[in-house]
Amino acid sequence: MPDQDNEAGQFRAKLIRRKQEWAAEGRLLTGRTARPESERLPPGQREVKNWPVLDLGARPRIDLKLWRLVVDGLVESPITLDWQGFQDLPQSEAVSDIHCVTAWSRYDNRWRGVLVSDLLSLVQPKPEAKFVLLQSYDTYTTNLPLAEFAVPDALLATHWEGEPLTVEHGGPLRVVVPQLYFWKSAKWVKRISFVAQDQPGFWEARGYHNHGDPWKEERYSG
Ligand SMILES: Nc1nc2c(c(=O)[nH]1)N[C@H]1C(S)=C(S)[C@@H](COP(=O)(O)O)O[C@H]1N2
Ligand SMILES: [Mo]
Fold first, then answer.
1. How far apart are CA 127 and CA 109, in angstroms?
2. C-alpha span between 95 and 106 (Å, rounded)
3. What's residue 83's pLDDT?
4. How many folded domains does the chain comprise?
5. 188: Cβ below 6 Å to ligand 1?
6. What pLDDT does 183 receive?
7. What is the pLDDT of residue 4?
């Protein structure tokens, strides 16, 4: 319906404008640095017990029969997985904290899915591959260095706390890269591309930090 599309479009435009303003003003910055070894909460963050939903407002519902995950670019063995093919990969669990750039952190999230390290063994990135671009079913994109994607507790998650991920939280499949701000953890991921040259994703092109380390408070660029 055009009316609904228009409303969704206005919501999205407003949200993008507000978050761009935050970046321009340097909102929430404390100028402190903290170490993950001695402090659990990164600077400027507060712990929440609930789990807020943050996205651009379009939450795609993907029929598992039509769902595909493309893994391509600078890899020895590019692959397109269907849902069964994804289930056939080794499934693992990892527990990690979430740190969102809007200042909430949520401790001890138990994820289940395919470890990024297992995906990397499968597709084998070439030596020239230095960065990863994640593309999602809602047209969202985000970028990160391959070295950050390859950490032991990063995963392609289908479950949270033993339950399938809800659509709001990125189900059927989202990326989780816990040591970076949560905007790097693409929900509804559909394509993972390994590239030589970094290119900014959605928020990275709109005033958000290219790297996004919560411990260094890398919230905004510039
Ligand atoms: N596909 C997609 N992934 C996304 C987003 C989005 O809009 N679309 N928002 C990002 C942002 S800004 C955050 S903070 C987290 C929020 O995840 P949550 O809603 O499960 O808390 O998802 C990230 N991944
Ligand atoms: Mo976010």
1. 32
2. 11
3. 98
4. 1
5. yes
6. 98
7. 60
Tell me, in angstroms, the distance from the centre of ligand 2 to residue 72's CA.
Answer: 26
The boundaries of the domain holding residue 196 are: 2-29+41-216
- Which of 53, 50, 83 minimizes the C-alpha distance to 67? 83
Question: Which phi and psi angles does 169 have, rounded to 5°?
Answer: -95, 15
β-pairing, 131-136 with 141-145? antiparallel
CA of 155 to the centre of ligand 2 (A): 18
Q: Residue 3: its pLDDT value, please?
A: 56
User: From atom 10 of ligand 1, which residue's Cα is the shortest distance away?
Assistant: 183
Backbone angles phi, psi at 220, to 5 degrees: -125, 160
- Whether residue 81 lies inside any domain: the answer is yes
Is 221 part of a structural domain of the chain? no
- Residue 122 CA, ligand 2 centroid: distance in Å: 30
Strands 92-99 and 79-82: unpaired
Which residues, given as ranges, of the chain have pLDDT below 70? 1-4
In this structure, is residue 197 part of a structural domain?
yes
Query: Is the minimum distance from the CB of 56 to ligand 1 under 6 angstroms?
Result: yes
Residue 93 belongs to domain with CATH number:
3.90.420.10
